[in-house]
Amino acid sequence: MSIYRDIERLIQYGIKKNLIEDEDKIFIRNSLLSLFNLDEFEEVTIEDENLDTPTPILNNLLDYAYKNGILESNTPIYRDLFDTKIMGILMPRPSDVTKEFKIRYNENPKLATEYFHNISKACDYIRTDRIAQNIVWKSNTNYGDLDITINLSKPEKDPKAIAAAKNLPSSNYPKCLLCKENVGYRGRVNHPARQNLRVIPMKLSSEDWYMQYSPYAYYNEHCIVFAGKHVPMSISKNTFDRILEFVEKFPHYFIGSNADLPIVGGSILTHDHYQGGNYTFAMNKAEDVYKFNIPSYENIDLSIVKWPLTVVRLKGDDRNDLSILADKILKHWRNYSDESVDVLAYTDETPHNTITPIARIEDGKYILDLVLRNNRTSEKYPDGIFHPHEELHHIKKENIGLIEVLGLAVLPARLKDELEVIKKNLLRNDGIIENEEMMKSHLDWFYEIREKHPSINEENVDQIINDEVSQVFTKVLEHCGVFKWDENGRQAMERYIDKLKVDIK
Fold it and tell me: Out of 28, 169, 182, 240, which residue is the most buried by the measure of CB atoms under 10 Å away?
């Protein structure tokens, strides 16, 4: 392996991916030589190649760095810190990315996001090689085709990095993973490097916000839109104003927010942010079940859609009117109780009701989906009444955030091996699964599958398991719905709609 050859290969890659220009070659080469403590360069001949990602080159460079004492440890976290530093050298300045984005935006917003998405992949900020490791499929359910992902893309915990992190002085810079100060940050063992991160500044409701892409995307053009200030998640009229303005600016994207309360919120509640992208989820296709109008807002079509969670859908031409009505529905819901279905707005001063909102444009109309959420716990359901119940934890225990609300399951990596064990035991049917410790949580489910599918065989076993996983995920979503699709739930839903129509002026 020649370090000089791989440096030239990386430069060639950068030119082909429009990260750098031909006239940058000498500057980039010298920057890379400096990084690898090299004082001179050997001319080499390289073949022409068209790589989708720089990973093969980076792996060679990282191996060289470790062998020559430049890389402290040959473990995933340390390799990630160093390969990000390498790719940071090939990145255009933030201002150059913003200028190019604006030029393309003025022609067509879609051209702008395509450019930004492509360079985010090319520089390996979006870890496409790792995302490709995820196990993904679609399964048909009563609510449409749900997306299932077993998440294998994020690197495993590194024991050496964990040990090193304990010895690091505490730091609040950047304050969190979503702060704008991450752009260009070198990282540390307990905070990812971001030299190859670029963000697009924008105004939403006259405030400073920024757009970037998710490094471990779960769907097409999975982007994150975050506040310029480090402020907590909050659902309010401002939220509706911002997300509706965003889809006005980028009509080919959807955007939504996690809820702002524990249990029903997302993973980062400390920094206000939204998630969007260029993808159509099962929930987007959900059909209207109850159509209704509110007298003061006859220009807005309202409905409850056929979805496991309770979704109030607003559709109209005027985004300001939609935002005003959405705010009234939010305030109404924050104070709404129906003990017959375990919905209580407050316990003493602690609020329980909030909303997960999602906006998009379809056929020239604004659509705003308001997903009703409640985070109450009880003695029977200590993790949450409207949360995946214990019998489903073998598949999904974590909070149900925006992405899952929309119908895309993000399931833990452990399932890859566990489902393989289930598959083998379904085929041989010899009872060995009972002796495997890690499979105890799956036993009831395993017996259920075996009973349902007595003719299971090599040809159909994978499809059966995939479908059964999706059915569990469907139940997960149903557990999170405040108004169920049984008779009691339907009656409660109708009471809610009737109250909404009376109370909102």
Answer: 240
